[in-house]
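Same chain as my last thread, 480 residues:
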Amino acid sequence: MPGDPLDEEALAFLPLERVAPLLARGKISPVELVEIAARRMERLNPAINAFLALSLESARRQARHAEREIRAGRRRGPLHGVPISLKDNIWTRGIPTTAGSKILAGFLPPADATVVRRLHRAGAIVVGKTNLHEFAYGVTTENPHYGPVRNPWDTRRMVGGSTGGSAAALAAGIGWGAVGSDTGGSVRIPPSLCGVVGLKPTFGRVSCYGVVPLSPSLDHVGPLAATVTGAAWLLEAIAGRDPLDPSTRGAPALPAGSDRPPSARLGRVRIRLPRDHFFENIDPEVRAAVEAAARQLERLGAKIRPISLPGVGPSVADAAEIAFAEARHYHESAGYFPARARDYGEDVRSLLERGGEIRAHAYLADVEHMRAARAGWDRAIDGCDALLAPATPIPAPLLGQKSVKIGGREETVRAALLRLCRPANFTGAPALVLPCGFTRTGLPIGLQLIGPLWSERQLLRIGYAYEQATDWHQRHPSFS
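reply #2:
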């Protein structure tokens, strides 16, 4: 372990799987961890703007209770006494939930979201609510009401969205895990741009009850952490059938929180490189890093072959139309739009206006295509264990940047950041993002592993093996 494990800076960046044993053995207390998170919030949040609300007094009470339980031998598991953050579209009883919007300013939910209740049951301690793109409807987290989140690796740059505050906080060493939502890449784009881990589970694996909706057909809830093991532990805590969310299902078991993945070798693992869509029009440094990751996985024993997936590209447009229509329906039915159109930021308002232009027959055709894609996904990927692809085609753009040019082709930043992540929302497939390199200017590059339905265990195994063979996850921004 580098440095003294009780040194505050070292402890702030210690991954969850190394903090948990210290808590279990009484080498560090939950109270101390909460105070470390609080001091780092005070020092670093003015620079990165990752948090919208703090819950430090309740966190201190929970920490004292967790300390007594652990000392009495009643440890609940690896998250017991661990400070984490929540995206501010997740209901928290007694703590404001704004969804990054003026419209919900001051809203105090009547109950906790299901994922929050499960995190509390596991003993996790919520220290704050993180900044996000307004109503989770965007990919920059340049929030017009609460200010932009800034990337800890270069504060002139964006973090991606919409779970931007959570990824920035983890990259800056504030807290040891987070939970956010993902409709088109929102727990994968920010980790890719910030150098942390994000996991979008299979659709139906984790309840969305108590999460402000964007597009219920595409919405997922998933964990973020510094490492693959941390993400696995968080997923285990929040996953499972929920009678309050009819989309959830009974599913194959996840890895037990006290277990490490079975091996850092990948014999007989079949990984495919998609010829279509995922490697088209990407930054050369991103391509080089992902191809190097493929070679590393091959050295670990994985069998890597190309695969053709011609239907993936069109699914991006279909998913966008579903999101347009369903977001507009939610905001209309809640009485927010168009009644309070002026209270929205310009970009979200324009997306909701566009949602009103989607015809019913087009929406129904998109949904039918989505259902067919989900039913046929495992056949389409030909029985492989994972697809290997970039998470984003570019590293973090500058704040305020509207377009990007790759290989002579110009596209909007929004389209670029979404196009490699949206297919997994459309198919409902699980997708894991983890760091696989840095650009020459020191910006993180993210690798994406997309698997068959309900294959989180295998994705975590592959991600863990790659992580153990590299040191990208051990690098931290110098500003902190």
